[in-house]
Specification:
There is one protein chain. Helix content is about 35%, strand content about 15%. It has two domains: about 40-110; about 110-320, no CATH class. The chain has helices at about 10-20, 30-35, 55-60, 100-110, 110-125, 140-155, 195-200, 205-210, 235-245, 270-275, 315-339, and strands spanning about 40-45, 70-75, 85, 95-100, 125-135, 180-185, 215-220, 225, 230, 260. It is globular, with a radius of gyration of 23 Å. The chain is α+β, with helices and mostly antiparallel strands. The longest helix is centred in the last third of the chain and has 22 residues, at about 315-339.
Length: about 350
């Protein structure tokens, strides 16, 4: 989505480049994803022999047709397969495998943290930073991330929306606003084990096994932009990621962008329609709620004065792109005059 720097050999190309930037969609990345990017389906692979097992057929009925979650059931001809396997979208890496019954099915599709995440996304949160930790070791990281996000929320701005631009119309959903939040996730909670694994993503299975914890920004319809170990997530990364997701959407093809989706139990179209009619919450944006099962006291302190680590956000990519285009255009014009 970030426009990449490129060399334009002619003045005409430079002018067209600048015009393209100026006329780009003004919808923020997070909202464009919420409005237009359908969640990729996870794949639940089951033995083909289960087609004659009445109990298994009954168990899988809610996942077929108009499923309650973004998951597809696939029947395998592999004679050695005797259990179910849940695979990431676009990947054969198993997220989970085991015996499938009503008890094991529920935590695959849903969990308390995922319900809390859905509530925030449908309430209009721009980005929800899920911070996964073990025990009470994550208090310092939660405080630091929440404090930084509070500072960014105060100084950042959403792109100005043009209601007359047909290319920048918002879909049904919550009110468009700039709001960051932090959601704690306990890696010690068995009910959240599947969620933690999918949050870490197909390329980072070691994140859930390590003891340092990690954080991941979630936006749109449960899209994860990336996952970082807490000891590598500095203020610059936190700032760049958050501001990118609240900046103008310049690339609209989902699969051309980094990230992966979460498995969530929700009908997005119906939920967004209800969200458009619901009153907006006035709850604090970045103060993380403490789960009842994990009574850790979280204290959020205000951000320090904006020094090097607490500076105002850098210029947006749109402004930088336009500036470069103008500079190259002037250079091209001078070369043309010389000729």
């Amino acid at each position: 989505m970030k426009p990449s720097a490129r060399y334009c050999p002619g003045l005409t190309a430079l002018v067209l480049f600048a015009a393209g930037i100026a006329s780009a969609c003004t919808i923020p990345v997070f909202r464009y994803a919420l409005d237009r990017w359908e969640a990729d389906p996870f794949r639940l692979v089951v033995p083909k022999a289960w087609a004659t097992d009445r109990e298994k057929v009954k168990l899988l009925v809610p996942l077929r047709g108009n499923a309650v979650a973004n998951v597809l059931v696939e029947e395998s001809d592999d004679p050695t397969l005797d259990r179910a396997r849940l695979l990431f979208p676009h990947d054969d890496l198993p997220l989970w495998e085991g015996a499938l019954d009503s008890a094991s099915m529920e935590p695959l599709l849903d969990s308390p943290a995922r319900r809390a995440l859905l509530e925030r996304l449908l309430a209009g949160d721009s980005v929800v930073w899920v911070v996964a930790t073990r025990g009470s070791d994550g208090k310092e990281a939660l405080d630091r991330i929440a404090s930084r996000l509070r500072f960014l929320e105060q100084v950042a701005e959403l792109p100005v929306q043009n209601p007359d631009d047909p290319d920048s119309q918002l879909g049904p959903g919550p009110e468009l606003m700039l709001k960051f939040s932090v959601l704690p996730l306990s890696l010690d909670d068995p009910a959240e084990r599947t969620f933690a694994t999918m949050l870490a993503g197909p390329a980072h299975p070691a994140l859930t096994a390590g003891g340092a914890g990690f954080a991941a920004p979630v936006f749109g319809r449960g899209r994860v932009l990336g996952a970082w170990p807490l000891d590598e997530l500095d203020d610059i990364t936190l700032e760049d990621t958050s501001l990118f997701l609240t900046g103008r959407c310049s690339c609209r093809v989902k699969n051309d962008n980094p990230g992966w989706d979460l498995l969530l139990k929700v009908d997005w179209e119906s939920a967004l329609s209800r969200a458009a009619e619901a009153p907006q919450s006035s709850a604090p944006a970045v103060v993380p709620p403490v789960p009842a099962s994990d009574p850790v006291e979280i204290t959020v302190t205000p951000a320090a004065s904006p020094a090097l680590s607490d500076r105002t956000p850098r210029l947006s990519w749109d402004i930088v792109g336009i500036g470069l285009a103008v500079i190259f255009a002037l250079a091209g014009w001078r070369l043309w005059r010389v000729r």
